[in-house]
Design brief:
Keywords: Coiled coil, Membrane, Transmembrane, Transmembrane helix. This is Putative DNA double-strand break repair rad50 ATPase. Pfam families: AAA_27. It contains 21 helices and 15 strands. By secondary structure, the chain is an alpha/beta fold. A hairpin with a 6-residue loop joins strand 11 and strand 12.
């Protein structure tokens, strides 16, 4: 990926400015306050906007206000970049409430937003979403701000997750941090027993309160049953006394009473009305006991059943979605397996090892040479012949012993030299024959033909892709296992809800059957008639009280013999009144006892439902903990597998710059430790000098950025402020090497960098910022 053009229409101090960048090394020079950091931030803003990450609603960062132009009428720009030969153009409006982003095919001018990943929070497509690049990863890897590590961690959680997924080219997104966050939120929503506001805490608190209420209810209703028995007995006594009073009432006494009553007409009407009411009460007595309190309890049970049904529907949808996701994974696994053409990874590896072994023998045959042996043998032969010649010519003096020794040594060296030459020539001819036969590499040709390749490089590329494909298949397998666990959890939850709902429906049916109705609507109709019955009774009792008042007035009249008419007509009226008062007192006591207290059977059923809810929460917590443990194991395994390569990469870069530190260790939280070259112990990067910390920070960014995403440009703002000359040269050489693979953009206010680039012979493209002119 290469950034080609920056069109800054209105951003910070810039207005209608254009900056053209080139592939390779770009050096952007500007004095203090020339706008270097503004340009660097403009690039970030064009790709990601100025939105705070991980928010449930769109929230702008502090940088939005910092670079807002003073006139505030325009806050926009455009950026052209190239990926794999295709040019894209980003046009973004940064203004709040008007913010938008359009992504164009820069060749056709067509809007292609729908080809990029969509973020539902900011309601925009993500230009770098297909590269797995977020603003957090960008600012912690490829975008190196000026001395930023003094206030930031070397790598955040998201950088760690991206590094774990760096070989995941399957297109399947496994957001470890997002999964863990959602699982923890799920656990927090469920809560613990000690948290009164959590789901499980509220359920436990409500259950405990209901258990106490159940004790009170059982005591109260036991007393109500006792009072009701007394009321029933008193009612029987009243009926017997009323029968006796009817018998004692004589027609003559009644006539006399009516003569004494001035309100006879009213009494007559009341009696007629009470007779009518009495008949109605007897007819509607079957509706006694139907009340709205019980109706509300039935409706609550029905509502609980409906809520469980809604939860079951939701779980079914989640299971369907997970099944579809699992199906997609299986389909992608099948596509990956087809790439292997029906061959196992072990078979491919075995063929590759044979191929490389043959190639290695050829190389060894090329490397091994007998030139040294031949030269030494030639020298030995010449020395021997020289000694023989000196002895024969008598140039060694008159000593016969010396001549004989020289002759013997000369002859011996000559023989050894000739033997060495013969051996060297023979070995050389033999190795040349081996090399000639190996160059034919028939077994290599057989392997290439087996895989339908013509060149060894094609087979090596196939093997590397097969290794990546095998890793991707293993990652898909892990994700599939996670989805299967999720499906099992959903199935378990569905079964629990199903059993709860079935129990609730059975309970509702039993209650309706006990009340002699088929449904709640029918019970509701009977409640209305039961209410009417109570109203009739109230009216009937009101009439009785009025009659009693009238009759007390009549008690003032006397018969001819001086006896009270009322006492003669109703000799047991005082006993009736006493019994009525006792019944009223008991009924009042019963009402007081049951006021605000539910029926024990209803409380027990509610406690049973809460126990089931608490059990369901426990199952969900255990499931979340199981998945979290699996994710933790995956992260640890991924780190153990890939950390050695990253340690080696960063260590090589750090050693190249410092010529001192080369051993580094990156732990599973992406914390960096440096090996002390003197004692061999580990030191945290923060314990080093400020300049060395800069270099460790540079090495980390250089290494992790190239591993996570080798396509993005590497952008640096004044990274060498605290470097010495030698280490600055080494860092510039590394950036030069990197610029051959990916674009490098270096911001600086010091001409020293340019002088060093020239001295080192490093090609670069220079851009000058100053007084808002390029």
């Amino acid at each position: 990926m290469k950034i080609k053009t920056l069109n800054i229409r209105a951003f910070g101090k810039f207005k209608d400015q254009t900056i053209d960048l080139k592939p390779g090394f770009n050096l952007i020079y500007g004095s203090n306050e020339a706008g270097k950091t503004t340009v660097q931030t403009f690039i970030q803003g064009m790709f990601f906007g100025f939105y705070k990450p991980y928010r449930k609603k769109k929230t702008f960062s502090d940088e939005y206000q910092k670079y807002l132009p003073w006139d505030q009428f325009d806050y926009s720009g455009a950026l052209v970049y190239e990926v794999d030969g295709q040019e894209f153009r980003l046009e973004r409006n940064f203004l709040r409430a008007k913010d938008n982003l359009f992504i164009y095919d820069n060749t056709t001018g067509k809007v292609i937003n729908d080809q990029f990943k969509y973020d539902g929070v900011i309601r925009q497509n993500l230009p770098l979403g297909h590269l797995g690049m977020t603003s957090v990863i960008y600012n912690n890897t490829v975008n190196m701000r000026q001395i930023s590590h003094d206030s930031e961690s070397f790598a955040q959680d998201e950088v760690r997750d991206s590094y774990i997924e760096m070989q995941n080219s399957s297109g399947i997104e496994i957001n470890f941090k997002g999964l863990v966050r959602r699982l923890e939120e799920k656990k927090n929503t469920i809560g613990r027993s000690g948290q009164s506001k959590s789901r499980i805490g509220a359920a436990i608190r409500e259950r405990d309160e209901l258990q106490e209420l159940l004790k009170e209810s059982e005591i109260a209703y036991a007393k109500v049953a006792e009072n009701q028995e007394i009321i029933t007995q008193n009612q029987k006594k009243m009926k017997r006394i009323e029968a006796e009073n009817d018998y004692l009432t004589q027609e003559s006494v009644v006539k006399r009473k009516k003569e004494l009553l001035q309100s006879y007409e009213k009494i007559n009407k009341l009696e007629k009305e009470n007779n009518r009411l009495s008949k109605l009460i007897k007819e509607d007595e079957i509706y006694k006991g139907y009340n709205y309190k019980t109706l509300e309890g039935l409706k609550a049970i029905q509502n609980q059943s409906e809520r469980l049904s809604d939860q079951m529907d939701y779980i079914e949808k989640e299971m369907s979605s997970s099944s579809e996701h699992l199906k997609t994974i299986r389909q992608k696994e099948e596509v990956k397996r087809r790439f292997l053409a029906g061959k196992t990874m072990n078979a491919i590896t075995e063929d590759y090892d044979i191929f490389k072994k043959e190639q290695t023998e050829v190389e060894e045959a090329k490397k091994n040479s007998n030139v040294a042996i031949n030269i030494v043998s030639m020298l030995v032969t010449l020395i021997g012949m020289g000694l023989v010649g000196l002895a024969n010519l008598g140039l060694l003096g008159t000593s016969t012993g010396m001549e004989n020794l020289s002759l013997t040594v000369g002859v011996t060296l000559t023989i050894l030299g000739v033997i060495g030459l013969s051996f060297g020539v023979s070995a050389t001819i033999k190795k040349r024959n081996i090399l000639k036969s190996k160059q034919l590499i028939p077994i290599q040709e057989e392997i290439l033909e087996k895989y339908h390749f013509k060149k060894g490089a094609e087979f090596e590329n196939f093997y590397k892709k097969a290794v990546r494909t095998q890793k991707e298949l293993e990652q898909m397998k892990n994700e599939g296992e996670l989805i299967i666990i999720q499906l099992s959890r959903h199935q378990a939850g569905f079964e629990v809800l199903f059993e709860q709902r079935r129990g609730i429906m059975r309970e509702l049916e039993n209650k309706l059957a006990s009340y002699g109705v088929n449904n709640i609507a029918e019970y509701s109709e009977r409640c209305e008639k039961g209410q009417q019955l109570e109203e009739l009774k109230i009216r009937f009792n009101g009439n009785l009280q009025l009659l009693e008042s009238l009759l007390e007035t009549v008690n003032g009249g006397k018969t001819e013999n001086g006896q009270s008419v009322w006492h003669k007509a109703s000799p047991k009226s005082e006993e009736l009144l006493s019994l009525g008062k006792e019944i009223a007192r008991l009924e009042g006591e019963n009402n007081a006892l049951t006021d605000g207290i539910g029926l024990p059977v209803e409380i027990r059923e509610t406690i049973k439902s809460l126990d089931a809810q608490i059990h369901s929460c426990d199952i969900e917590i255990k499931a979340c903990n199981a998945v979290l443990q699996i994710l933790e194991n995956i992260q640890k395994e991924s780190h153990l597998e890939s950390a050695p390569e990253l340690n080696k990469n960063i260590g090589h870069i750090l050693e190249t710059i410092t010529h001192r530190y080369k051993g580094v260790k990156v732990d599973e939280n992406m914390k960096l430790k440096v090996v002390n070259p003197q004692g061999g112990d580990f030191k945290d990067a923060e314990q080093l000098s400020a300049g060395t910390m800069d270099q460790v920070h540079f090495a980390f960014r250089y290494g992790i950025g190239d591993v996570i995403n080798h396509e993005m440009p590497f952008i640096l703002d004044e990274p060498f402020v605290r470097y010495d000359n030698e280490r600055k040269n080494q860092a510039l050489k590394l950036l030069s090497e990197l610029s051959n693979k990916r674009q490098v953009i270096l911001f600086t206010c010091d001409a020293d960098e340019e002088q060093r680039l020239k001295a080192l012979g490093i090609p670069y493209h220079k851009i000058v910022l100053g007084d808002c002119e390029i």
